[in-house]
Specification:
methyltransferase, 4-stranded antiparallel β-sheet, alpha/beta, 471 residues, 9-stranded mixed β-sheet, 25% strand, 10 helices, elongated
Length: 471
Amino acid sequence: MNESPESAMFRPPINRAMRALDRSFFKKSVPLSAARILDNKQISKYRTELGHDLLRLDRMPAVRSVRDSDGQEAKALLLRPEVKPDDASTWSPKLSDLVKASQVSLSPYNLELDYDYWNYHDIMSAILPEAEQDELPTGFSIVGHVAHLNLRDQYLPYKHLIATVLLDKNPTIRTVINKTDEVGEQNEYRTFSYELLAGDPDMNVEIHEENCRFRFDYSKVYWNSRLNTEHRRLVEKFQPGEAVCDVMAGVGPFAVPAGKKNVFVWANDLNPDSFASLDDAVRRNKVHRFVKVFNEDGRTFIRSSAERLLKTDTHVKIHKGVSRLKQPASTVKPIATLTSPKTFNHYILNLPASAITFLPSFIGLYVGREEFFTPHTDAKLPFIHVHCFSTKSDGNKEEEIKICKEVSEQIGYEMKPGSMETEGEVQVWDVRDVAPMKRMFCASFRLPGEVAFRVAENESRIQPLPSKERT
């Protein structure tokens, strides 16, 4: 709403005692003036010339249909509240000239406003107690047709009001829920308990991200729309023909876009529902030639996937713009053939609450496999991108030191803040704020040779376990 002196005239009626939404309560008649245009062809011209006199209100067109004394319909321009039809001293010189020339005529006009006119913020400002309005509950996540609230305690008495208005004012939303616990607090799948506040109880959603489609039951898998930028940032680091191991892949926000870039991805998730949705996304987005999906424990998968990739031969032929309706791809000469590397170029560990504790699985990962890496070949040891939570401070310097210390303790090798290209250094990336004193980071570093080739006492290599795998 405009914050002009008369803006209060256009605010909705106030009812701080309302607990069940009464849409009929929000009706208001605002007395104004209308400048009837005698020649409809001049509307655009006069609208420009009378700019200072016109009513300028969000979501409210200035041009209206009115009827003259004979009942004939005509066009009129709504004027600011200060302009009075019977007081020429309130008219601008231009308006006075047009009236004297009989180009326009002024008359009273009652502007009728109702619930449909006002937005979510307007309605909630008229309902919630003023003491609760320092920060209205406007922040929420939209996942498909579901609006996901995380209401503070002071707003819980009004939760159904908030949800109902939110549903009314957002036509793409069909379901409003409120989180009742912390993500991952109750189980290892990062799902959360919630209550339905308004709308349809259907939690099966379809979303689009990075030109990819995902379908899943939001109540059974983890998804965070606010991580779209982080998904894109990491995928941009992967090059066509590289191999990526996505250890906690979820429904595939890293894996599927990477597959569209012709990156070979081994994507794993422990949650059977995530695994099923991941498999669906791989097929739905036609990246099955590049993305393999697995359903294993993450720690086991780090080691078993590295062992299996060494023994896997994957070749994908690339064709340029072949229309299968016109000509089968099998009859067209490929422009290139991509062969998967024998070792991963990147590992993603996107389980910020505990991913750092998975790092010991990289100790001795390539014992006896030194010949696969420099200086014996051009292949370098992989980058590891591990997400984590920490506190927040100006510049995040304290957090960088703290995260590097945690990484060092997990892999038994001293790591310091710096460039991920330099062995022994960690690049700490600020992903997003999670809570007032909690921030999500991504620590990226190249696996040090001393860690990858370390032979531990009583070393016993983890053998691949039977798993669900689909290609």
